[in-house]
Amino acid sequence: MRHPHPPQPPSPERSAELRRRFAEEARSERPDLATLCLLVGAEGDGTLDEAGLDAAQVELDRLAGQLPFRPGTPRAWAVALRDLLGGRYGFHGTGADYQRLESSLLHEVLRRRRGLPILLSVVWIEVARRAGAPVYGVALPGHFVVGFGAEPGPGGGSLEERVLVDPFDGGRLLSGQDAEVLVAGATGAKLRPSMLEPAAPLDVVARVLNNVRAWAARRPEQSAVGLWAVELALLLPAHAARLRYERARLLVQRGDFLAGAGELEAYAEVVGAVDDDAAEGVRREARAARAMLN
Question: How many CB atoms are located within 10 Å of the residue 270 CB?
């Protein structure tokens, strides 16, 4: 493997350029999922240069070109993708993939043919979309999958006109009961029709960044990874205000006490509009951070 350790970040100049492009793409009229995921990858892996970004897009095009011409029904599309990506090329995931940052970086998933459910789903979606398939992502709690067929309207619609597949399991076609089992296994909850609604590209990217943040949070020595993931998430047009608090705490954790304290104080102002006690707790954190400067 090329990376015995998590990949190293790009230079500050390269990072600034990547973030500018990420913000621009995220705010465009039709954000491109592959482009956004590859920019996330470039922020996480400094070896991914412009040629590498182009090569990843070309690989998605190449894979799409190997699909049969217009297979027909949603099921036929699902089978064609399963046979190509899961069968011929061996894209799938295992439990060990949750331990690797590369499993959340699209260019690495294309190289290794391994990754988290959501990144493997991005490969399925992008290859299928390029071939003209009616395809969309489905953000089941705890386990992202892919749908083929007409997108369901509000409320989820019927499973009969469309097919769900699990790219993590090599593109296995899922019955309604299979989807229920996946949700129950991940959350203990029942499958609700609303869970089957298509995931918008920006929602997919936000969930990818959530996974990166969760990976880093379990590894305090990887706080730099957590910081770039939260800073990219803050560039998305819609994001939780609490991300600012997370960024502030990461700055303090990394020894940037002054910037962290300033961010905490700014966040306290936001929180203070709805919860005085919570705001005072954040201000205490800010004072503690400033005390570290002495």
Answer: 14
Q: Identify any residues that bridge with 146 across adjacent strands, giving them in sequence order.
A: 137, 165
Decide: 250 and 261 in contact? Cβ < 8 Å.
Answer: no
Rounded distance, CA 99 to CA 222, Å? 13
Higher-pLDDT residue of 288, 188: 288
> What's the pLDDT tens digit per position in 232-255?
999 999 888 899 999 999 999 999
17 Cβ partners below 8 Å, 6+ apart?
A: none
pLDDT tens for each residue of 210-222? 999 999 999 999 9
Q: Which two tokens stand for residue 78?
A: 């699902």
Helix (H, G, I), strand (E, B) or coil at 157: coil
* Residue with token string 């350790």: 5
Look over the chain and give the mean of its residue pLDDT values, rounded to a whole number.
91
Alpha-carbon distance values, 227 to 43, 69, 170, 214 (Å): 11, 44, 32, 11
> What are the backbone dihedrals phi and psi of residue 180, each rounded to the nearest 5 degrees, phi first?
-60, -40
* φ, ψ of residue 172 in degrees (nearest 5): -55, 135
pLDDT tens-digit readout, 27-77 = 999 999 999 999 999 999 999 999 999 999 999 999 999 998 888 899 999
Nearest in space to 11 (alpha carbons), one of 50, 46, 42, 41:
46
Tell me the DSSP string of 211-245.
HHHHHHHT-GGGHHHHHHHHHHHTTSSS--THHHH
Neighbours of 265 (CB within 10 A): 18
Question: Is pLDDT at 2 greater than 50 in this prediction?
Answer: no
Distance of CA 291 to the CA centre of its chain: 36
Distance (Å, whole) CA 44 – CA 102 = 9
Distances (CA, A) of 189 to 113, 137, 164, 195: 31, 20, 19, 11
Residue 157: pLDDT band with limits 50, 70, 90? very low
